[in-house]
Amino acid sequence: MTTTAPHRHRDTPGTGPHRVGLVAATAAGRRHARTLAASWSHARLVEADGVADALRTAWTTCDAVVAFLATGAVIRVLAPLLGDKRTDPAVVVVDEAARHAVALLGGHAGGANTLAAEVAAVLDARPVVTTATDAVDLPGLDTLGWPVEGAVAAVSRAILDGEPVRLVADAVWPLPALPPNVHREPPTGEHRAVGPEPEGGYRVLVTDRVVPVDDRTVVLRPPSLVAGVGSSRGVPAAEVDALLHRALADAGLSPASLRCLASVDVKADEEGIRATADALGVPLRTWPAAELSAVDVPHPSEVVRAAVGTPSVAEAAALRDGGTLLVPKTASAMATVAVARHAPRGRLAIVGLGPGAADLRTPRAVAELRRAAVVVGLDQYVDQVRDLLRPGTRVLASGLGAEEERARSAVAEATAGHAVALVGSGDAGVYAMASPALEYADERIDVVGVPGVTAALAAAALLGAPIGHDHVYLSLSDLHTPWAVIERRVAAAAEADLVALLYNPRSRARDWQLGAVLATFAAHRPPQTPVGVVRNASRPDEQVHLATLATFDPTVVDMYGLVVVGSSQTRLVGGRMVTPRGYRWRG
């Protein structure tokens, strides 16, 4: 399969090909602007005959503007240029001392709120965001990543004010947590037009259908539709676009719910199809003819098979990943279109929280926690992040020893269509929840892995540089692995002269195994080989202990510690463990 993504006019500021214009009037402002320009290759200082002209130029030529000016001056210049918040550039204003980065215009739609945070991070300033939903930690209806129509301001206000709001969806979609006053009704299971809300009621509709909208209704457009497209060579984009929109309109479907256009791979470079996808802002996915020929379709054609190697292009491409055919192939002079509806896919984010300290938790982990409607994890790990969860987040916490239960619960919630975050300490893929969860996850859900700082990395940083060369992770817990197997692995690591990082080294029930393991290493390494143990790395009661194979006392270790056994090359330098890389220039 080949996927071609269209160019997006509005990428996230600071993370892609997003043109940021910098405007400054004073020496201090220009100095701050140069700092941003040095950090972001996509940012440039915009200069003109005067600061007002520079602002106007940046407004018309850039996707976002950072103005090192007073807010009043920026407002007076830009007010006559304001058009629509969906197309106007984002504007962030920074004061003379670079103490604050104010999201002035385009907070959600333009990305100014995100841009303000990124500007503040570079300049060591404080982001100022006044959007109501952000101020009270609620997801804005226009920030969910889906097209939104209708009375966004009125319904958002009702949500903020705690008024009853109905969420009506045709199926369970992986939306983030919403506050308790938003009542999620059971999915109808039917995609039908919905009439106006009874007088006085607010609602959020999640549907790909064209529905009547009043001044108390918001419609979210989920990415549920795939349009298969076939064509003759050289088909005009206008013809593809007109045929597609006519087919959708006749079926009562919204173009805003298109997930992608799909076709056979020989059409991957067909300009008329590509241009249509670009205009719609969706990717073009193409499949080999052999794969499409295996898809069961209602209207196969031997003429099409002879031309491209599959009896169907439009219908087969629309149905390639399953779904229900809503619009059978319909043709114009040079194009063919079919449309299928695809069921929602739940979302499982497997999130590593790091070793414990909040500043060692990745921004991506925080973003996934705030995106989730359901959070699953060990109770003590969930407690670490409760302050990050949005109001309305459902928490499924359990105690030690319930790993399989947590894995099954997280996968079940995602399979039911929810947005789920399964959390674990360190990196979720290292002796943690990723492996058991993925044993149960199947193709019905999307899985996102969020790496975290492992206990080994946190401990190594405190000990010095013990893993500067080859190393191995070993768990000494025989709860799921027979001790005989662990012994063989330890012996292999000792003989291979690898630095060893020992997880689960010792507990009340396993008080002799660590000593036996250290004896195995001592048989292959000098007695002065450094051994370090770090307990509760990065947490308030953090402890670091250094010794050697000859002097190390296993009784100082418990399940909250991680033991690092050096190789024969590891040395203590300045009170720190160092395993040399053996660079040639060290002669």
UniProtKB/TrEMBL annotation:
Presence of the UniProt keyword Transferase in the record: yes
Keyword Methyltransferase found: yes
Pathway as given in its UniProt record: Cofactor biosynthesis; adenosylcobalamin biosynthesis
GO biological process: methylation
Record domain Tetrapyrrole methylase: where: 347-551
EC numbers for this chain: 2.1.1.131
PANTHER family per the UniProt record, alphabetical: COBALT-FACTOR III C(17)-METHYLTRANSFERASE-RELATED (PTHR47036:SF1)
Enzyme superclass (EC): transferase
Keywords, alphabetical: Cobalamin biosynthesis, Methyltransferase, S-adenosyl-L-methionine, Transferase
Pfam families for this protein: CbiG_C, CbiG_mid, CbiG_N, TP_methylase
NCBIfam families xref list: cobJ_cbiH (TIGR01466)
GO molecular function: precorrin-3B C17-methyltransferase activity
Protein name: Precorrin-3B C(17)-methyltransferase
Organism superkingdom: Bacteria
Domain CobE/GbiG C-terminal: 225-340
Primary gene name: cobJ
